[in-house]
TrEMBL record:
It comes from Novosphingobium rhizovicinum. This is PepSY-associated TM helix domain-containing protein. InterPro entries: PepSY_TM-like_2. Pfam families: PepSY_TM_like_2 (PF16357). The keyword Transmembrane applies. Keywords: Membrane, Transmembrane, Transmembrane helix. The chain crosses the membrane at residues 144-166, 178-196.
Length: 197
């Protein structure tokens, strides 16, 4: 009964983590070779002017990190190919509002002059490999991806621990089991202790 349960947990955790493990393995290689993978960032700059009625909706004083009012965000989305709605804004004591909108594989920002209503925006797309690498690192990916990585990590832990227990059960019929398991520990340990600098 216990062995059957162990097999069930092992294959279920393998099935749940399969696609993500493949993604994380591939992006592990692309991250390791990032310097040799060339990509030309695509930069888009935009500028415009907020209408006086929309500009009047901006608070005159520092507003902490409150997001832009909805109508202001909507107008900026019309001016630039960016939607700053919901992003924290940096309301400086000077006459500027700055909104950073980073995401996986991209950086973006909008700056608003609260006096003149002048809007400047820039979006930098770094390509698909950068997008996938940022997913691997959890960089600028939001809460849903944050929790996905945790669930995926737990599934990998279950897969590994149940695999180890299954190895223990079958080790007497496979004499190379424990030397190979020992090697899996020894190789990264030796590399970390003697070859990292």
């Amino acid at each position: 009964m216990w062995l059957k349960q162990l097999h069930t947990w092992h294959w279920v955790s393998a099935a749940v983590s399969l696609a993500a493990m493949l993604l994380f393995s591939i992006t592990g290689i692309t991250l390791n070779h990032a310097a040799s993978i060339s990509a030309e960032p695509q930069v888009t700059q935009s500028s415009g002017l907020l209408p006086a009625a929309v500009l009047a909706q901006l608070p005159a004083a520092n507003d902490g990190d409150a997001p832009l009012p909805d109508e202001v965000a909507h107008e900026i989305a019309r001016i630039a190919p960016l939607d700053p709605a919901g992003y924290a804004a940096d309301w400086s004591d000077e006459a500027e509002v700055y909104v950073a909108m980073p995401g996986p594989g991209r950086d973006a920002w909008v700056s608003i002059d609260r006096t003149s209503g002048e809007v400047s925006a820039e979006k930098t797309e770094r390509g698909w490999i950068s997008y996938l690498n940022d997913l691997h690192k959890g960089r600028n990916t939001g809460d849903a991806w944050f929790w996905f990585i945790d669930v995926f990590a737990v599934a990998c832990i279950v897969f590994t621990v149940t695999g180890l227990l299954l190895l223990q059960l079958h080790a007497r019929h496979r004499p190379s089991t424990w030397p190979l398991v020992g090697l899996s520990l020894a190789i990264p340990l030796i590399l970390a202790l003697f070859f990292l600098h």
